[in-house]
Each structure stands twice: as C-alpha cells, then as structure tokens.
Amino acid sequence: MSTASIPVVTGHRSRNRGRKVAVIGSGSWGTTFAKVLCDAGCEVTLWARRPEVANEIQVAKRNSQYLPGINLPKSLKATSELAEALSGARLVFLAVPSQTLRQNLLDIEPYLDRRSVLVSLVKGVEKSTTMRMSEVMADALDLDPARIAVVSGPNIALEIAKEQPTGAVASCADLGVAQEIAMAASAPYFRTYVNTDVVGTELGGVLKNLIALAIGIVDGVGYGENTKAAIITRGLAEMTEFSVVSGADTATLSGLAGLGDLIATCQSPLSRNNTAGRLIGQGYTQEETREQMQQVAEGITSVHPVLELARERGIVMPIVEQVQMVLNGTMAPKNLGPHLATEDAVPQPELSLAEPGPGRWRRLLDRLKGTSA
Ligand SMILES: NC(=O)c1ccc[n+]([C@@H]2O[C@H](COP(=O)([O-])OP(=O)(O)OC[C@H]3O[C@@H](n4cnc5c(N)ncnc54)[C@H](O)[C@@H]3O)[C@@H](O)[C@H]2O)c1
Ligand SMILES: O=P(O)(O)OC[C@H](O)CO
C-alpha cells in the first residue's frame, strides 16, 4: 500500500505560538503531557515538587526517574517554584496524585490568574470525601464550571513519550474552553477531541483502573483471554451504569475516555493498575504490592470510595466488589470472576450496552430519585 495518501497533520505549532501553559506535577504523566504541549507549540513550564527533578528537566531535558531514555523538548522549562510555573499561564494542567490534589490546589491558589482554567489529568477520587477531581477543584477553590476541565483517554505515558500515536478527550461544561484545551494539547501524535460531559470523561478514567486491577489479578492467577474478555465486557457495563446514574452520557463511556482507556489499561503491561493487580493475583499482599510499586496506582485507593458511592446510588458492581474482597484478603484471587459474582435463582439477561436509553437507565435514574413505583 502506498503511504502517499496518508494525511500529515500540520499547523499545531503555529496556532499555539505564544500560548503559555503550566503543568503541575512532574511524574510520568505530567512530564509526558508537558512534552505533548511543547510539541503542540505551546510555551510550557513544568512544576516539580523536588528541585533536583526540576533541575534535571531544565538542564538535561531528561526525567530519568519517571521517563528513562526519553529526550524532552528543548523548549520545555521546569521549576520547583509555583510562582514561576504559573506566571502568565491561562491553562494549568494538574498531574499529581488524587490524594494530594486538594493541598496542591491550595498551594497554587495565590499564584493563579483569575481567568485561568484548571485541567485535571488525574484519574482517581478523593478517598476522604468520595469526590471526583473536578468536584475537589470546585470545592477547594470555588471555581466557576467554565474554569474546570478534564483530559482523559487511552494514555499510557511511556508510549506517548515515544510519540506513539493516540487520542484523548478534553471536557469542560463550556465547549469553547474544551476546544481551547484541545487545541493546546494536539500534537502530530496526539489528537484531542472535545465534549461537555465532565462527569463521564472523568469517571471513565477512574473506573477503568478498577477493572484493570481485576484483569491484573486474574492474569496473576494464570487465567487466559476468555476470563479477561468477560471481565472487560462486564466491567464496561459496570462502568457505564455507575457513570450514567452519576449523570454521565452513555456515549462518553463508549468513547476514548471509557472503552478506549479500558482497553489500553487492561492490555498494557506498562499500566500500574494492571501491574498492581497482577502482583496481588500472584499472592503478594496489598502492603507488599504498594512497596513494590514505585508509582501511583490510583485504582487501589478508588475501590472503597467508588463502592461507597455505588451503594448510595443503588448500583451493584460485582467485579469491583470482588476486587475489594481480594484486596482486603477476604477472597482468594482465583475466585475473582467465577463467574461474575452472583448465582441468580432465575438466569438473568446479559443487560448489555445494547439496551440503552429509556428502559434500563430510566429505571435506574428513577430509583436514584426515589420515583420508581
Ligand atoms: N502515567 C500515566 O500513564 C498516566 C496517564 C494518564 C493519567 N495518569 C494520571 O495522572 C496522575 C499522576 O500520575 P503519574 O503517572 O504522573 O504518577 P507518577 O507516580 O509517575 O508520579 C507522581 C508524581 O506526583 C508527585 N507527588 C507525590 N506527592 C506529591 C505531593 N504531595 N504534591 C505534589 N506532587 C506530588 C511525585 O513526586 C511524582 O512527580 C494519576 O492520577 C494518574 O492516574 C497517569
Ligand atoms: O498506569 P495506569 O494504570 O495508571 O494507567 C495509565 C493511564 O491512565 C492509561 O490511560
């Protein structure tokens, strides 16, 4: 096949010329996302908590702890001073662990421009409050919804740092703001779409981590592709039900931020959630697994708050419940899946995503609102 017909996407750099952005957090995703923004033509300053990390990025254009072997763009600036990172930045991307976000927000508040937009790249929920990151942002800084956004998708950092092509979704209640973010975050190897479904985009990223833990666990046990396919498929149904009852659009969960991210995270040995699950499936305890992991595996922290919300909202999540039992040590990893939790007195319909809309979701929403007969 001739390659002559493949369109080459150009123009990213010129349309972002002079656009100042900040990235807060210089772990694997913050550093990779800063590279995407640089390659899109933005003027990027990356904030690192540790001065030695900021110094290595600024001087050597490397982040050897989180992205070994990756050369970062010459144009990327790095600092450990928040004031310097945030100066003149209209878009502020947040790539810190979910459990530290609230404190990080309070730390950056004095340096934020009144018109700046905060964009969460974080895929977890706050354990103490069960809030999503956009809710934490609104709660901590009392921001207008048009200043709160999310970017999420099948985004394994190391692959993107190697410029392997993928996509993501920028989501904000204000479509114009989502478009501004998507323009800033579109490089030749990274396409960013837009939507206004912040809840769905955010929950896709949170919930796929829980299903990836389940996949890791059964992988560690030694189960094969049938088991994993059943967990991924039923996992997507659990993700969709939870999200829609929480206010998301069904379609978002079938998109890059839902199914797309679920596939990437469940398939990739580079996924930290998948890896953490595999260690647990191999017999390591939760504590031992935490010790072995050098990086954030958000799913482990999200299991409990997500199940708390599910119970409040009347949603049954058999796979996520099994993950919690395995993490707690009350279920053997080999019993995760067999097969998919409940033995019904009467066999149940699969209730796949092919049954959307008024029927199933309407009933769930009515139940949530207490209006069902
Ligand atoms: N790595 C990926 O492929 C990827 C992709 C998409 C989204 N995410 C999400 O991005 C978020 C960050 O993940 P990551 O992969 O960069 O994690 P990481 O483990 O690679 O890095 C975590 C970073 O947070 C910093 N940190 C730790 N405590 C902090 C604190 N109190 N204040 C500020 N910074 C602190 C660490 O120094 C480090 O720079 C997570 O929610 C993750 O789910 C990650
Ligand atoms: O490494 P994980 O499991 O945190 O997943 C990384 C990204 O969220 C994949 O999109």
UniProtKB/TrEMBL annotation:
The active site is at K208 (proton acceptor). GO terms for molecular function: glycerol-3-phosphate dehydrogenase (NAD+) activity; glycerol-3-phosphate dehydrogenase (NADP+) activity; NAD binding. Residues 197-335 form the Glycerol-3-phosphate dehydrogenase NAD-dependent C-terminal domain. GO terms for cellular component: cytosol. It catalyses: sn-glycerol 3-phosphate + NAD(+) = dihydroxyacetone phosphate + NADH + H(+); sn-glycerol 3-phosphate + NADP(+) = dihydroxyacetone phosphate + NADPH + H(+). Residues 20-175 form the Glycerol-3-phosphate dehydrogenase NAD-dependent N-terminal domain. This is Glycerol-3-phosphate dehydrogenase [NAD(P)+]. It comes from Leucobacter triazinivorans. The gene is gpsA.
